[in-house]
């Protein structure tokens, strides 16, 4: 078996351990699968945890991280036939993995099922081909650029006409009962940007504007830039390198491609990002991300794409917006003042799974505590159920809705007047579709609370 991702970090995993139960084929990928020790910790229901969303709603051990490992081992041991990655039972449990990264943090042996699923999808597609819906979801950032004149109109028409939505469900398996997100008329500019120079080179940062922020919520990037500049930082926003094959096309981290197992295309996008950020990484500037899944592609998945030292250097400098703000405040470098009001602002905070998986909710809490007059509470919920395109897929409708109903939606319904904060694009969409409120990003809340004489 030839792996699509670089699993060499697991080269020595389980070696010399008679109980490691490493499958017969699969090389280092098999060792990554065998990291699971079968403790069944993934089958517990920790109310403050994320792992494992599909097990939480099904109660079926086959849909836990360990259950997936057991089937993957069977596949790699030749027990599922000559084309094991096309096995229907394996497909069912792997397709219900939402890629939350919860197991990587909460499993005692840090099983990385989210990345294992990417390899599985790549292997399956090599044997079966890529489905049209997969190509559609994976290529969304490119479609938003290439078809920017008519695609928003088509999406608006589909959302208005039930017959068109039903046609999409029948042909592509995209739920007719869910409105698709609508791109804005004016996306965030694709041109490079640099604010006024500052005396301290240590106060220079790169703001990475992902495709979802760019095309659906550009005010988030505007807000983040305003907050950083108000705090005295020089902000760079990068564009494609001059020698890029498509210099006018905005940069994209490749998250949608990675999540759908399209590794070669993702690697090409990653190389574009690495080339554009090369000078900034060489200068030691932090690269700040607004969308958790996209920033963590730079920090985690790029290291699995076989891109060498350049990916390692970028990984070391990639940081979520909230992590950076908390870090700079702790270092007494955050020179900002905040408005206060007589009436407390009630805010419910929902964390993206990837924020929780890397411990970034601690940073969220620290930053929220900076704001006077803000009464906030974290919603103790696992995955919201949207998980990229998962919540829009007709075969996953029941599971996605059940994930949302486990904790998130009841908490929102209990406080209909509260403002909702969610840094993840998928999370905001799930909240909009099911609750009707437009959740804000932390950058927007901070911008709106800046003291008048600073903002």
Q: What does this 3D model show about the protein?
A:
The protein contains 23 helices and eight strands. Helix 3 runs antiparallel to helix 4, helix 14 crosses helix 16 and helix 17 crosses helix 19. Strands 1-3-2-4-5 form a five-stranded mixed beta sheet. The protein has a three-stranded parallel beta sheet with strand order 7-6-8. It folds into three domains: 121 residues, Fumarate Reductase Iron-sulfur Protein, Chain B, domain 2 (Orthogonal Bundle); 136 residues, Rossmann fold; 112 residues, Rossmann fold, CATH 3.40.50. It is of the alpha/beta class and 455 residues long.
Labels describing this entry:
Fumarate Reductase Iron-sulfur Protein, Chain B, domain 2, Rossmann fold, 46% helix, 455 residues, five-stranded mixed beta sheet, Fe-S oxidoreductase, 23 helices, three-stranded parallel beta sheet, 4 iron, 4 sulfur cluster binding, repeat, alpha/beta, globular
Record the SSE blueprint.
Layout (H helix, E strand, L loop, with lengths): L26 H7 L19 H6 L6 H12 L11 H8 L6 H5 L6 H16 L3 H7 L1 H7 L4 H10 L1 H11 L20 E2 L9 E5 L2 H6 L1 H13 L3 E4 L17 H5 L3 H20 L3 E4 L2 H8 L9 H9 E3 H10 L14 E6 L2 H5 L3 H8 L5 E5 L18 H10 L1 H7 L4 E4 L2 H11 L6 H7 L7
Parallel strand pairs: 2-3, 2-4, 4-5, 6-7, 6-8
Antiparallel strand pairs: 1-3
């Amino acid at each position: 078996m030839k792996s699509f991702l670089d699993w060499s970090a697991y080269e020595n995993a389980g070696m010399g351990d008679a109980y490691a139960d490493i499958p017969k084929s699969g090389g280092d990928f098999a060792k990554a699968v065998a990291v699971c020790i079968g403790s069944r910790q993934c089958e517990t229901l920790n109310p403050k945890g994320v792992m494992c969303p599909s097990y939480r709603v099904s109660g079926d051990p086959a849909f836990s991280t360990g259950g997936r490992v057991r089937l993957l081992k069977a596949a790699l041991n030749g027990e599922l036939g000559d084309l094991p990655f096309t096995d229907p039972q394996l497909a069912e449990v792997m397709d219900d993995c939402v890629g939350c990264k919860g197991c990587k943090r909460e499993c005692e042996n840090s099983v990385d099922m989210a990345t294992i699923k990417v390899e599985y999808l790549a292997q399956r597609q090599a044997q079966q081909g890529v489905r049209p819906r997969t190509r559609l979801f994976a290529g969304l950032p490119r479609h938003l650029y290439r078809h920017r004149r008519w695609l928003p109109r088509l999406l608006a028409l589909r959302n208005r006409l039930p017959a068109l939505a039903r046609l999409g469900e029948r042909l592509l398996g995209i739920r007719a009962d869910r409105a698709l997100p609508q791109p804005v008329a004016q996306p965030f500019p694709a041109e490079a940007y640099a604010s006024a120079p500052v005396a301290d080179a240590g106060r220079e940062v790169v703001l990475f504007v992902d495709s979802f922020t760019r095309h659906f919520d550009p005010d988030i990037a505007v807000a983040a830039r305003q907050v950083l500049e108000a705090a005295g930082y020089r902000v760079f926003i990068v564009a494609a390198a001059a020698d890029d094959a498509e210099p006018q096309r905005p940069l994209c981290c490749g998250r949608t491609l990675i999540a759908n197992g399209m590794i070669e295309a993702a690697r090409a996008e990653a190389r574009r990002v690495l080339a554009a950020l090369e000078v900034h990484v060489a200068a030691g500037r932090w690269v700040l991300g607004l969308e958790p899944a996209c920033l963590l592609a730079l920090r985690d998945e790029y290291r699995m794409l076989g891109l060498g030292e350049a990916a390692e250097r970028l990984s070391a400098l990639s940081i979520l917006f909230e992590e950076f703000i908390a870090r700079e405040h702790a270092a007494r470098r955050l020179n900002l003042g905040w408005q206060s009001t007589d009436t407390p602002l009630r805010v419910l905070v929902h964390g993206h799974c990837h924020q929780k998986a890397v411990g970034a909710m601690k940073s969220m809490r620290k930053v929220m505590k900076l704001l006077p007059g803000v009464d906030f509470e974290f919603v103790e919920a696992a995955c919201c159920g949207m998980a990229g395109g998962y919540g829009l897929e007709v075969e996953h409708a029941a599971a996605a809705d059940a994930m949302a109903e486990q904790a998130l939606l009841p908490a929102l319904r209990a406080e209909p007047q509260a403002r909702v904060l969610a840094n993840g694009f998928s999370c905001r969409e799930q909240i909009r579709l099911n609750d009707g409120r437009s959740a804000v990003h932390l950058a927007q809340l901070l911008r709106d609370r800046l003291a008048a004489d600073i903002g």
